[in-house]
Each structure stands twice: as structure tokens, then as C-alpha cells.
């Protein structure tokens, strides 16, 4: 059903005022959206190793729901031949492949309608610490998907990436001050002002602010690499026991906030700790094969990567998690399988994705199933 595209939002026309809200990731999906990697200053060796990793993620999710992969025209034939026929390849140009952040945040309505939020995107900081320039193609992705699906698109007045937020579908949102209140995103904006925008746009009632994201996360502290909802009242948190590792203090700090918090319905939170992989560092051979451009984030041998098992995707019948460290993969898999007993937890080798700066949650975006009218 085609619906009008909404380009301006007033107090009376906010998504919340119209009855829309963002559902939890663990709610039912109609589809998952991804993008195809090809950027030569992000992905080594012409992105061929990354393309293989992305294809494995797409195939794992496609066991659970329809998967759309957006591809630049010059990579369309390559992607179509690498991906199985049941994965839908569509021409959707981008500057890079992080669909969680440049793609839409979907909303649902109790009457069965679907809509999306079009946040302002500035490549994780714009000209003050952003990861590349330009990002003109990325900014058009949400508009294009809205046109493809024939759904309303609400333009939001703040810079925000999808990886910066996680919701429980019952009125609670997780985020970090490091990201959403960063001067390179929304300078001068207060917590109260941001909470008002989040409430009006996503239909949430309470924001739980964690101070920081994972150590050296180049997204300026996206919450989806540190902590996420796995069910109402339950969160997974990346954990480090080594006091000499800067991540240990970040995780303890987050735990203190979470244990003192209640959700929008007044429930205390149960925190499930996921061990941190590594620490993981870029090897000499992994830093080779990249184009070196002044307009993009440098990736050097010895740089620490912000690896995290929390960066997984919750599908209808599967949970797709990154395998990053043989010393911890099995333990992390076991914890997640215990948290999702009704789903199959699938581990995908994901170091190539991490080398680009993110992981499985970062390259995916769920399209929720709208409730029946």
C-alpha cells in the first residue's frame, strides 16, 4: 500500500503523535537490509575478503527472513553472482557498507502500517573526526528505501546513526553520552533536548544513558558494540576482567548504571556479561592492500580494534554473531544460545568486517513486521 512521504515534522506530525514507535530487534521481522562492501580505503584487496564475510552473514540471516543487499551499479553483477538467488540484490548506491548507520530506523503502527526515520547522517562526525568524505550517496539511502517500500519517511532534526540506539520495544532506549551528545554530532544539545527528540521520534518513554562505548570504537561510542537488549528487562554487556585493559573500567561503569536503572515499566534490568574477544589488533598483512586516502580514517598495523560479541543480529529464527577469537568464541556462543533458547545461534567468521571498523550488527538493519491491522 503506497503512502505519502513526509519530509517535514511538526509537534503535531511527529511519529509518536501519529501512533508510530520503534519495535525491539527481537520482535518479528519482514526483512533485513544490508549493503555490499567495495570501498578500497576501508576494505583491503578490493574488498574481496570482506565480500565473502558479508555474503556469509547474508546467507545466515536468509535462513530466517528475506535479505536485501544494496549494491552500487559497478558491483551489481559481482554481488549477484556471489550471493544465492534467494537473497535479493538491488541497485542502491552508497559510499560504504554500514546499513545500520546510514539506513533507516523502521517504525510500526498498531494499525499495521510501516514507516521510517531519516536521521541526519554525517559519516560519524562530519569534518570533525568523521571517517570519510563525502557521504552524499549514504544520505540518499533512506529516501530510496522509503520509495521502494512506499512508506512514510520522517525527517529527524538530529545527527544519529542506528548503531547509537537500542530499544526494548516497551518504551526504553539505551544509548551513550559519548556518541549522542558528542560535539561532532549535535553540538550544544542537552540530554533533556535529545530525550525529547528520541521520545517524539521513536515513541520511547525512558532513556538509559551509558557514559561511554567500547574502548577505541571509531564510531565515538555506539551502544550496539557495548550493550543491547536481548528481551524486555534483560541486556547483554561486553565484559572485561583485566583491570589493566581500559575496557574493564568502561564495562564496570556501564554495569553500575545498568544495575541502578529501571526500564520504562519500572523493572530492574538483568545484565548478562559477554566476554570481550582479544584484545584484537590489526596485523601487518591486514593493513596492507588498502588505498591510503587523506579523506578517510587511517588503519595502521598494531591499531587496536573495538571487537565485541555484543555486535550480533537478532533474526526471526536465528541470532548471527561474530566469531572473532578462538579463545572466547565458544564461550560467547554458549551464553547467547542460553539467552535465545528458541533461536539458532550461528557464528560467522567476522574479522574481515571488524577490520573495516564494525561488525555484524553494524552491517544489518531489520525491517520489522508491522502488527496486523
Automatic annotation (TrEMBL):
Catalysed reactions, semicolon-separated: agmatine + H2O = N-carbamoylputrescine + NH4(+)
Top enzyme class: hydrolase
EC number: 3.5.3.12
Gene3D superfamilies per the UniProt record, alphabetical: L-arginine/glycine Amidinotransferase, Chain A
Organism: Billgrantia campisalis
Active site per the UniProt annotation: 362
GO MF term list: agmatine deiminase activity
Keywords recorded for this protein, A-Z: Hydrolase
Family statement drawn from the similarity comment of this UniProt entry: Belongs to the agmatine deiminase family.
Name under which the protein is recorded: Putative agmatine deiminase
HAMAP family found in the cross-reference section: Agmatine_deimin (MF_01841)
